[in-house]
Write a structure and sequence with these properties.
By secondary structure, the protein is mainly β. It contains two helices and nine strands. Strands 1, 2, 3, 4, 5, 6, 7, 8 and 9 form a nine-stranded antiparallel sheet that branches. Keywords: Signal.
Length: about 160
Amino acid sequence: MKRQRWLAHAAVLVCGMGAAAAHAADTVNIPLRASAQNAGQTGSVALASQGSETSLLFIISGVTRTTTRPLRVYTFIYEGSCASHAEKPAYSMNQTLRPVNDTPAGPWRFSRSAPIAYDRLVGGNYAFVVRAGPWDGGMDLFCGEIGTSSHALGM
């Protein structure tokens, strides 16, 4: 049991979430699918419980060549799925637009905080959307669904 707990915590650290998650049961990793305009790229978002909020760590491999550098992306949580979500986002997490590692070629990682409890977010039917800025056409770059994904980091 101790070994499993240690492995779970090590997985969280490797994902860059640090000590944000107290228990492996309070973490999950959601794959992000690239949009048709951003074909060939990959991404993921790691979620961790942080009290009444959820800590998010996005990692994306790249964006379209026409996306302006330095990279600035918008992140949203919508009710529904990638194929059919609400018109307006349930949560916009755009206090900071630039990634942590500001390299021209990527991969990029950036963290956000969602004002929704982890259990409610993971238990709901939501989709994450990573979008280019309006100056780059505002196109969706990535999408990932919570309701259909259960890639728990813990054992």
